[in-house]
Specification:
With 421 residues, this protein is mostly helical. The protein has helices at residues 35-38, 63-74, 79-91, 94-106, 115-136, 139-152, 158-172, 177-188, 196-209, 214-217, 220-228, 234-251, 259-268, 275-290, 297-309, 316-332, 334-339, 341-351, 357-374, 378-381, 384-392, 394-406, 416-420; strands spanning 2-6, 9-13. A hairpin with a 2-residue loop joins strand 1 and strand 2. Helix 18 (341-351) runs antiparallel to helix 19 (357-374).
């Protein structure tokens, strides 16, 4: 993002990554940028054909010349260049770019030998054709585009699957409400019977397209919770967890308010006996917790604390994940964790006496990080290791810790994390 001043006001102009927006109209912000500023000149076969031209003029330029450069940009390693290529492609002549992309996809990359580049190109193309369908506003084109993108969901690349979901969301906006609901129900009916990734990212794409209200109004969360708790059908559990992961990647912060309902379900399956379900839960936990804002910790940490305190219901694998999450947030959200340290530290301390060595190790690491990162009192910083040692081995280390503590002359206030520890 770059800041510019125009008419005495400040506004944000998105360059390159504008194509990531779900609304094609947002790309108009690039109308005053030269194509050469989005994609290096060496991407063009004939630089003079596009020199000094604007993105909004893309449809009037030589389409073949432009497409050769755009195709190269769509698979570039640089996300900014890919975003620029997507933005230009969205402004090209619709029928031309759609036919070119369909040919590329029908021929499985049109002879592309670099698998990683082919994946990046396919992901970009899913975004482009979804955006073009949105711009055209034609129901039939949108319907066929949704089906075309859905076929790409079989690709094992997570980046491609995520891009496909976003592409579906752009095209689905054009369809009448009843057709959007029908498509959503189609994917929901595939829970446990079809490919997990196809169903998961299909649901995420449709939900994003018909707005996140569908999570409740269309019973999506209820269906997913039912599937997660299905003890007899491991495939259903896996698909539901993959869907939580997909919703996290596609909806991002829009999905955050559902943490209170979703996170306990994910934590409960981190120790599932079926390997595929356990792996799906781990991926869902990582992607869901990564989207959480610092302020959400006021609601999330109590959930994590209850999971750590309930060793009878929470698997040891889940407790390790929760402890690692707590430790990661100590550094990333120091102020928020400080204010709620008194509610989370006791659960971490309790984990030190866990029967599993892995849990003990994670708890010791988390507790040490809490002490070193959150305690500001200079006198107490030097006491972190002795206190942690005393908590871990009270029989042997309590007296030495107390003796050291008695020798401390306090010259600074004792803060909340210190008292919690």
């Amino acid at each position: 993002e770059t800041r510019t001043r125009r008419s005495g006001t400040r506004r944000l102009v998105k360059v390159g990554m504008c194509a990531a927006s779900p609304m094609v109209d947002d790309l108009l912000a690039m109308a005053n940028d030269e194509i050469a500023s989005l994609i290096p000149s060496n991407f063009f076969v004939d630089g003079s054909a596009v020199s000094g031209k604007k993105v909004s003029e893309a449809a009037s330029l030589d389409q073949e010349t432009l497409y050769k450069a755009v195709l190269k940009a769509l698979g570039d390693e640089d996300a900014k260049i890919r975003g620029g290529g997507q933005g230009i492609a969205l402004h090209m002549e619709a029928q031309f770019i759609m036919s070119k992309i369909h040919h590329y996809l029908d021929t499985d990359g049109d002879g592309e030998q670099d698998a990683d580049r082919a994946d990046r190109t396919a992901a970009s193309m899913a975004l482009v054709i979804g955006g073009v369908a949105n711009r055209l506003g034609d129901v039939e084109v949108a319907k066929s585009t949704v089906n075309r993108i859905a076929a790409l969901l079989a690709c094992p690349s997570l980046d491609v699957q995520t891009a496909c979901a976003v592409g579906i969301s752009r095209a689905i906006k054009v369809l009448p409400a009843e057709q959007g609901t029908e498509t959503l129900n189609h994917y929901l009916s595939g829970l446990g019977t079809e490919d997990a990734a196809t169903v998961a990212f299909g649901i995420a794409g449709v939900v994003k397209g018909v707005t996140s209200k569908a999570l409740c109004s269309h019973g999506v969360l209820d269906r997913l919770e039912e599937a997660v708790n299905d003890k007899k059908d491991a495939k259903k559990r896996e698909t539901a967890l993959r869907t939580y992961q997909a919703l996290s990647l596609v909806l991002k912060n829009i999905f955050e308010p559902y943490a209170g309902n979703v996170l306990p379900q994910i934590i409960a399956k981190l120790g599932d006996k079926v390997a595929q379900v356990k792996a799906a839960a781990e991926d869902a936990f990582k992607d869901f917790t990564s989207l959480l804002s610092n302020y959400s910790l006021y609601a999330v940490m109590p959930i994590v604390g209850r999971a750590l305190g309930d060793s009878a219901s929470t698997s040891w694998q889940a407790r390790v994940f929760c402890l690692n999450f707590v430790e990661s947030k100590v550094v990333a959200a120091r102020r928020q964790v400080t204010s709620i340290s008194q509610s989370i530290v006791p659960s971490v301390i309790e984990s030190l006496s866990d029967t599993k060595a892995e849990v003990q190790t994670a708890a010791k690491s988390a507790l040490t990080t809490i002490g070193n990162e959150l305690i500001t009192s200079p006198e107490m910083k030097a006491m972190v290791d002795p206190i942690v040692s005393a908590i871990i081995s009270p029989g042997d280390m309590t007296n030495p810790c107390v003796e050291k503590l008695m020798d401390v002359t306090f010259m600074n206030p004792i803060d909340r994390p210190c008292l919690a520890l």
